[in-house]
Each structure stands twice: as structure tokens, then as C-alpha cells.
Amino acid sequence: MASKLQERIFVENFLSHLGPDYVIAEERESPDFIISKGDERSGLEVAQVFRDQSPHGSPTKARESRHVQYLNRLASKYYSCDGLPLLVKANISGPPERDIGAVVDRLKVERLPSTWGKSRFEMGCSTFHLMALPAEAGSYQRWICINNSVGWRGAMVSKDIQPLIDEKTSKLSSYRKAIARV
């Protein structure tokens, strides 16, 4: 899962479907959350499903991870070079540009001077959508790869999720050290 914040958003949405009595009692790891309904407490583990999941991992998940790492490096370099506050949403359709310095230079040129101003440019296999943020945003680094996890192309079937269920099942005894019901 990309982040604890993203996990929490998914869990809160899940709990809203169970009813108003269910709440997050504790945010943790292994299991990810303890949820409660009155005195009843349960552990909840959050997982992201990739159709190409195998015992050796998922090529899609690995690619998404590389995209996130690239944008994190790019944001760090941009702000270390005195870049002004910026939100970047990138569509990375192939290998990202290797020369991060060149991308940073282009980001600085293409960022509009007016707050909330939007611009866009292409470089290599990537399209960058920019929004100039106000000075108060500081070094805003939650840059997004918009072609990561954009949705399903068909119905989920048990073979799509069974490997993940098997992996999480193997960890139940560890989860149960924190809480009996998982």
C-alpha cells in the first residue's frame, strides 16, 4: 500500500459501509488497524490487489513503486534548487527521464507565476501537469503519478485475490499477538 494515509482512507470508507458504530480504535502495523464496535475489537489488515501478483511479486506494483520513488526524488531535487511551491501530477508512460536536473529545470520554467496557475509539458515518456501553489504550501511534495492504480479492467475473480489471501493467512499468528480477532 502506498501510504498509511491511503490505507486509512480505504478503511474509513469500508467502515462507513458497516455502519456508524464501527470506528478505528488504533492505527498500527501488523495488523494495520484495530477497529471497534462498542466493546468488540478486531484487527484489520489492508492490502492492495494486483492482477499480476505472483510469489515473486507484481510487475505492476514494482512499476508503481518506481514511479513514486522517481517523483519523490524529483520533488526533493526541485525544492533543493529553490523551486517554488508546486503540485505535480505526472503520467509516466515509459522509462522516466534519467536526467532529473533537466526535468527540474523544466519544472521551474513551466511553473506559472500566479498562484493556482496550471500548465503542462511533455518530456521523454512523461507528461507533467503543474499547479502553482501558494507560498504557504512550502515544499509540497505529495506529487502524484496519475497512471498508478487507475482502476480495474474487469471483474475480480478468486484467482486474482487468492495469493494475497494466502500471504496474509500465513501472518495470522503474528497478527493475533496484538489482538485475538483478525
- Count of individual beta strands: 7
For the largest beta-sheet, the strand count, sense and barrel status come to: 4 strands, mixed
* Number of continuous helical runs: 5
Strand content: 15-25%
Helix content: 25-40%
Q: What kind of oligomer do you see?
A: single chain
As a whole number of angstroms, the C-alpha radius of gyration is 20 Å
Question: Could you walk me through the main structural features you see in this protein, from its secondary elements to its overall organization?
Answer:
The chain is α+β, with helices and mostly antiparallel strands. It has 2 domains: 4-49 and 161-175, no CATH class; 59-145, no CATH class. 35% of the residues lie in helices and 21% in strands. A 4-stranded mixed β-sheet has the order 5-6-4-7, with helices on one face. The chain has a 3-stranded antiparallel β-sheet with strand order 1-2-3, covered by helices on one side. α2 crosses α3 (100-110). The longest helix is centred in the middle third of the chain and has 22 residues, at 59-80. The model has no long low-confidence stretch (mean pLDDT 89).
List the helices and strands and how they pair.
Layout lengths: L3 H15 L3 E6 L5 E5 L2 E5 L14 H22 L5 E7 L7 H11 L7 E6 L2 E7 L11 E2 L12 H12 L2 H4 L7
Parallel strand pairs: 4-7
Antiparallel strand pairs: 1-2, 2-3, 4-6, 5-6
Helix pairs in contact: 2-3
